[in-house]
């Protein structure tokens, strides 16, 4: 069963059955303004922060799904019949009308055919402007002249989401609305500089700024009074709930198409008037849309591949990098899952997201890296959740709130947690994030940039990385294994004084990456020092972390083993195996045994489970993971994020068939036809898939959440297809299914293009016999080439 | 225009037009469990705390209004026609069906006539049980046998409201459901001790525990799939959204009535089974309902009056004390306005609410007083918002949350604000609250009870009062006027280092009340000390606070006058006048001039405006009040809470006609027929009425919010009708409209009953010529009488 398909030519996912039981979402906006929008045009906009820069309102987890949204209503003024260009909220019987939603890259397009009218609506945020454009076209396919009224509708939100959710004695009196010269101005009296607007390229026949006037008592977005009446009531008010509805009646001749452009933006009436004037010229709208298309066309051109696997091609050339880059730009807190209640960035996920997308958006990645370092303390650990604005002396801090601040709330200083509340892994991701950025861009000078710490002082980027490594080196137990603290990557493994094998392996991995930097810079003292730490870790791990058939996950504060065959539950953890291998720490034979155990015990058709068997009894020594239902999230679901780590580990072991089996098992593309099981959108990796211990086994939940897409992208492009930037050149080291004959990659790197063609006549998984660069045989790395050049690379596996 | 009427006999407000454009709400529950319910049966339940003890879900400020709720659907199984016993959510055309909602005291009853069926549903929480009973009766008024399916519906909520609102990656996986032996058990795996249940006295034919199975995709509570199908799908799940729907088909003979009792409760399946067994006996249900009726009958019997004014009688004998007592029990944070996002108690409002309701519920008031003192610091000030559980060493602290706590969130210790974040008035209300409790109950020993401070140490109640007075005495400026600090009673006047006349008058008032205690206890040293402070204040006020025609509201930190005729805006503030008089500080002639100015400039048909003229320009020296739209809330609305202070002041000045004019202007009863203006329910005082500078002038907003009902009650009963408990006896000192011939009061006080009859043959406003107690003329106070006695009191005014 499916709800849509991939339109490769247009890089769109096309939903042609709009009655999906969950939200299929997309992200509009690439700079300041963002809209999260569903296949039924439900969703919300914000500028800057979804917590305190909200523009439109959304009722998450609502009944019915995904209300309100950014809607266009059409009304046949002869018959009174009305509908929306998106299927919902009016929801015409799908037997009577055709609806399609096309989610493209940073735009979404809604099409409908009903009642002799074809209508479409394209939503996007043009580059350089804080405005969402609604490009609407209405075609009369009947044989008579038609009078069609068009109504826009958004519900404005108080800009601060907590007040908007629950304190109506302030929230409902803090904002006001007016409409002059065709511009609806939504204002906050207490905050004179903040306005939002809605306008259009037409002169409205009527308007409503007051939500409850537009909707009417005991009605909903499904049957608004204004649309039913064929006219808005020209309402506006100071205080109350506000909306943006502009109404215009169009007379449309048979065969004629009319076009209307609506604009939802940040800024006051003046800004609205300027914007209105600019985009009333439809060629400006067309050009702005073409810019968005070009934005992605040119960026995605930095990496394109043709492999024997259709799903891999579609996802790697478009959807996975789109997801990873979107997570870097908007983070997890802008979604339908976390709806702005938390703000800012998660340390570890942001760091990981940057790893995979520096080739797409190096400037954005660099900005995020600086923000991550500003959120690192001089002790070396990272602030688990943080708002970059709070560390940015040049930027705006949080906006004023429409209330007298409560005691304590006025404290906007950065909160530095105690050690027990620190996550043991956060800052270690920074090391890899910076290294990948350097290898991609060659921007070695970045290491000398001075960046402040969250608490006090500042240091160069290079020294920031050392602080992260030193923090982990300091917080080890007597056995040499890193302490788990509040949590490691797994938020629900809360060891406090206990020890984590995963963070120990991660520490080793980060040391290895750092040592490449130190070696490249000839910092011999650092090389020596951090190599020595790495070798101490290796010894400690060998002495303590092998359980006999696989690696342990760690120890509780009382010294009990976690992830041991001796236990009844939680015997085997995926991450302990994949990280032992991926970090380069494990000896080969143990690596093989550990990864085989993972395959045997954790894998099924949807991917690798996080642990086995699921916990059924609370055990606070291990952590919150034992308090989650079986098969859900951290308690033995098929968590997406760690699956690519296993792929990387298998590639390091040379087992390309298994690596690719893991890759395709979780590939959303291949679940497009089984939506009765998956449910979630098939163009986005989800946070997790329900595990075999749950009645909803196979159901995917939380699309767009960070970390997963980036690591799958890294695993597929750098380890399966095997082209990896290093400081000095491109490394080519594929690990593919044996039955692949060939594949090719176009890779732009440091300004030149590499057209890489890989042949596999001997049907091996790993091993490169020869590489020809522009016809010349080379050994080892492909050196950096003259910017602007096009280079032919012929690789022969065997 | 009206939506209902007062049914005096049943003490019910009857809504017979259910399409009210706002929520008319009621409160069920008197002990641990509470439900806030609307006239369309929308609303939510919680146990203990609306923030972290939530049971059912509610989408405040929603579209449509007030979803979801506690619903009973009926379905004609021959035709498939279905409806709800409350008008919404199905919302049958009101031309085709009759709907009535009766809000009674701690119960609400819904009635409908439709399709040959009369149905009613009574909701209440029986004393001694944490369960809401739904007593449903369905009568077949047609002439043929009918097959009617009944479905219950509630949507369960995650118990912690913040997660329920916005963190769906945790919230949607933390709870599960099952149904065994007719009991739906809603559980939190991470919190094994917390369950909620839904059950019924019947064996269900089918059930749904999963919300989205009951409702169906792209449907809503208006047209749930299960009801349309005539059967639930027996769904249950771990994770997801949960509901309580039990379905039963009844065959009903012509003229027959069937009865079904549904039960929504706190506790697990075992508790559900016990509850089910108990209330399956309908006589137990009847008895429990009778207990609720008796609860209020006996308590309200402590004060009943008959005056020439119908509105005063209805409100004073039933609705105003009901509102005041409800505010003491459930506080403001359980409402449709603040929906549990803030928890616990507001210091000043709780203190004030107790003032008016100790005759109704002395134990509850005593508990609140202790909680207020526990939230007082040893410095003397109160914590503006606090959760009593945090100061209660014996009680449960907040429940665990279904997430790993974020940095800093684990800190549940009491936060003591800095001086700049302290409200200057909070603790002063405590003095009056304790004094009124003592006068009502005679529980003088309470003064010797030892109570802890919020920060450290403990003291007797008597010493706590002194701390409050000392704090205000310490924080005065050089001119002897009290500092405003973060705010005084007016949250939006934020003077910080500036000074507040209101808090200065309040300090004087509290000193006067305390001195009565000290005198009664013969604590001469304290009497002397605090009398001296009072006289210093009087001098300072005389020297600094008179503006020439009225009293100033204070001074900004830079020394600018506030509330002066010299300004263009904010010339005159109500509270500065009423408190100058009510505190007893003002000289008589200034009192008259000040109160006349208030009458001239601030009064209109809906009551007294808070200030005049409204502010139009932000002035942060004055405070947030200048950042609110004109005519709304603190910026020159008709704020309810301060109106009774003006009534008390006028009574002290002997101007009974004006006092009563103020009283009736705001009396909700008299706005029952003008709901097109008032909108809000006419049985409850609202926080404010839109002022004359707003387009919605006259509209009342925020029913049930604390403070207002209590003070109106105090003003009417103690100052207009003029019977005031003192330490030694009842004082009789009415101040009534001159045209009143007579009125009578039944007052129970300290165990005996006083049947007080007041005659006013000379048509004066004030002045008592003679009092006869049981036939004997007395002078001065009516002494305490033997408990259990009935006493006749004849008062002659003149």
TrEMBL record, chains A, B:
UniProt keyword list: Glycosyltransferase, Transferase
Query: Boundaries of each Glycosyl hydrolase 94 catalytic domain copy?
Result: 295-722
Which GO biological-process labels does this protein carry?
Answer: carbohydrate metabolic process
Highest taxon in the source lineage? Bacteria
One example of the protein's molecular function in GO is: glycosyltransferase activity
Q: Which Gene3D superfamilies match?
A: 1.50.10.10, Glycoside hydrolase, family 65, N-terminal domain, Maltose phosphorylase, domain 3
Where do the Glycosyl hydrolase 94 supersandwich domain residues begin and end? 11-278
Q: Does the keyword Glycosyltransferase apply?
A: yes
Would the keyword Amino-acid biosynthesis be found if you checked this record's keyword annotation?
Answer: no
Tell me which PANTHER family the record gives.
CELLOBIONIC ACID PHOSPHORYLASE-RELATED, PUTATIVE-RELATED
What is the protein name for this chain? Cellobiose phosphorylase
- Tell me the organism's taxonomic lineage: Bacteria, Pseudomonadati, Planctomycetota, Phycisphaerae, Sedimentisphaerales
């Amino acid at each position: 069963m499916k709800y849509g398909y991939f339109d490769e030519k247009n890089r769109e996912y096309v939903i042609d059955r709009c009655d999906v039981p969950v939200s299929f979402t997309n992200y509009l906006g690439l700079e300041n303004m963002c809209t999260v929008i569903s296949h039924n045009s439900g969703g919300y906009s914000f500028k800057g922060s979804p917590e305190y820069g909200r523009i439109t309102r959304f009722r998450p987890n609502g009944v019915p799904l995904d209300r309100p949204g950014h809607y266009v209503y059409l009304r046949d003024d002869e018959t009174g019949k009305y509908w929306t260009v998106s299927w919902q909220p009016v929801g015409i019987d799908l037997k009577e009308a055709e609806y399609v939603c096309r989610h493209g890259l940073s735009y979404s397009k809604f099409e409908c055919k009903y009642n002799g009218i074809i209508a479409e609506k394209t939503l996007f945020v043009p580059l350089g402007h804080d405005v969402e454009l609604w490009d609407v076209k209405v075609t009369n396919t009947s044989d008579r002249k038609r009078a069609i009224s068009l109504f826009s509708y958004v519900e404005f939100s108080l800009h601060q989401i907590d007040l908007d959710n629950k304190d109506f004695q302030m929230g409902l009196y803090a904002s006001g609305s007016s409409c002059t010269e065709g511009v609806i101005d939504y204002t906050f009296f207490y905050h004179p500089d903040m306005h939002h607007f809605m306008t259009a390229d037409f002169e409205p026949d009527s308007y409503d700024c007051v939500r409850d006037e537009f909707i009417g008592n005991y009605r909903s977005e499904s049957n608004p009074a204004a649309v039913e009446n064929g006219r808005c009531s020209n309402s506006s008010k100071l205080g109350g709930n506000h909306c943006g509805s502009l109404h215009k009646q169009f007379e449309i001749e048979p065969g004629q198409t009319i076009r209307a452009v609506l604009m939802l933006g940040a800024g006051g009436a003046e800004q609205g008037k300027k914007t209105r004037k600019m985009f009333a010229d439809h060629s400006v709208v067309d050009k702005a849309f073409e810019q968005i298309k070009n934005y992605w066309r040119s960026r995605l051109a930095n990496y394109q591949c043709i492999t024997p696997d259709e799903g891999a091609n579609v996802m790697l050339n478009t959807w996975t990098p789109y997801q990873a880059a979107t997570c870097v730009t908007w983070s997890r807190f802008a979604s339908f899952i976390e709806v702005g209640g938390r703000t800012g960035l998660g340390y570890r996920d942001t760091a990981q997201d940057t790893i995979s997308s520096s080739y797409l958006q190096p400037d954005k990645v660099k900005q995020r890296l600086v923000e991550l370092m500003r959120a690192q303390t001089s002790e070396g650990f990272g602030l688990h959740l943080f708002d970059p604005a709070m560390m940015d002396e040049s930027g705006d801090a949080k906006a004023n709130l429409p209330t007298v601040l409560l005691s304590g709330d006025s404290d906007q200083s950065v909160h530095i947690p105690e050690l027990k509340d620190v996550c043991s892994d956060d800052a270690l991701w920074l090391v890899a994030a910076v290294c990948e950025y350097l290898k991609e861009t060659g921007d070695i000078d970045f290491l000398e940039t001075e960046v402040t710490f969250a608490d006090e002082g500042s240091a160069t980027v290079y020294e920031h990385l050392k602080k992260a490594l030193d923090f982990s080196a300091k917080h080890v137990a007597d056995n040499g294994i890193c302490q788990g603290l509040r949590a490691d990557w797994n938020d629900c493994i809360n060891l406090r004084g206990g020890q984590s094998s995963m963070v120990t392996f991660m520490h080793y991995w980060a040391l290895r990456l750092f040592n490449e930097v130190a070696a490249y810079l000839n910092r011999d003292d650092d090389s020596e020092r951090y190599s020595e730490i790495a070798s101490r870790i290796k010894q400690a791990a060998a002495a303590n972390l092998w359980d006999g058939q696989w690696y342990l996950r760690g120890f509780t504060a009382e010294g009990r083993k976690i992830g041991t065959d001796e236990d009844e539950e939680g015997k085997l953890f995926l991450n302990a195996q994949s990280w032992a291998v991926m970090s380069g720490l494990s000896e080969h034979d143990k690596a093989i045994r550990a990864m085989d155990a993972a395959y045997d015990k954790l894998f099924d058709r949807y991917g690798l489970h996080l642990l086995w068997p699921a916990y059924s009894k609370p055990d606070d020594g291990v952590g919150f993971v034992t308090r989650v239902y079986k098969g859900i999230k951290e308690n033995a679901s098929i968590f997406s994020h760690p699956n690519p780590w296993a792929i990387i580990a298998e590639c390091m072991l040379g087992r390309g068939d298994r690596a690719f089996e893991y890759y395709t098992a979780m590939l959303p593309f291949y679940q497009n036809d089984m939506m009765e099981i998956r449910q979630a959108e098939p163009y986005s990796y989800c946070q997790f898939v329900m595990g075999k211990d749950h009645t909803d086994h196979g159901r995917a939940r939380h699309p767009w959440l960070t970390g997963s897409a980036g690591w799958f992208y890294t695993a597929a492009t750098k380890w399966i297809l095997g082209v990896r930037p290093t400081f000095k050149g491109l490394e080519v080291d594929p690990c593919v299914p044996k039955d692949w004959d060939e594949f090719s990659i176009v890779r732009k790197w440091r300004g030149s293009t590499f057209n890489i063609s890989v042949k596999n006549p001997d049907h091996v998984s790993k091993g490169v016999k020869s590489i020809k660069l522009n016809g010349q045989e080379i050994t080892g790395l492909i050196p950096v080439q003259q910017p602007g050049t096009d280079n032919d690379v012929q690789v022969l596996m065997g």
